[in-house]
Write the structure tokens for this entry.
Amino acid sequence: MKLSKLASEIVESPTLALNEEARLLRERGEAVINLGIGEPKNKTPIHAILSSAAKLTSGEVKYVPIDGIPSLKKAVIRYTEENYDRLVAPENVIITNGAKQSLFNIIYSILNPQDEVIVIAPYWVSYPEIIKMCMGKPVIVTPEDGTFTPRFEDIERAITSYTRALIVNSPNNPSGVIYPPELIEKLVDLCERKGIYLICDDIYHKLTFDGNEAAPAYRFTKKDVEDSHIIVVNGVAKLYGMTGFRVGWVVGPRQLVRVMTNVTAQTTSGVSPVSQAAAEGALNGLQSVVEALRLHIQNNRDVLLQEFRTFNGVRLIEPQGTFYALPDIRAFNGNSVEVSRFLLKKAMVVTVPGKEFGMEGHIRISFSGSVKDVTEGIARIKWALDPTSPNEIYIGDKKMIRDWM
């Protein structure tokens, strides 16, 4: 069978692969703890449920405008004004099938073959693959000082005549780091001077801890949305715990939104009206649900930090936002793929190899679930890796003895 070379070079999502392996283990009755998936465990907000239910019971579930239903775009416009202090028009907004489609359609709409996009490591696993799917070249900039925050000079040095965009994800998946405001300000200025798009993946922008703030890029430009090179991606998946509804959006220049609308029209068409109604309900409903989720995740983060203080050999940079941590496990094994497989086999804990995020020697841990999952999951990881931890542990109702050290 002959398959596309381009498509064949796209790697499988490691997160989805590990989640599937964990699902099969659970079906066999194994006591698996999933610290790999980026999905809050909260229930869908009631206003989202009522809004989507009203759309269903109306029976009017038909085709919708490709760029989104007007009432949801109105809610996004208000959200943008309230959270970014920026007035935008309906023509500056497009609703997408999740933030992932937002990113794909942006990249597809701005790249020509062999154009470059700068990606800061650690990065979300899909960025390089999306760029390659659009026949572009991801250019990775990796901090060399042991932190997860890049140096501006290194980013500036990576720019060539082929550079079309820079992706910024702050708070950052997978590290939880928030980039300093002064770095964002310099990047805005750089992109505007060079005529490069600054793609801001803001999907976690309200999930921050200890009073930290993820400074929005719009704060550092006097240009309006039409003349700016800033493109903002957001959605309801993480802030409202509505991952299954698949609703994201883009705020950007009208010309870009127009091209993205054409791309969407020839691929997926518009987002389900039931999902759009749910997103509208979430945005227009009580916003205390976001703060409740943020507080829950911050508490989980605090528990995680407490557990790691007694984890000999592991170095962890404290997450300032998101629901991820990226501990350095090189003291045990520099191969993160081997470590993740070992932890799933021996400790029945799902983690994601740091290699997939451009940060080998680390593993990503999600603390978006319950406190019990966090405490028990870290205890199992310590048992499996740290020789100073107790030699015995219970996994489910089975007493396990460590016999590999």
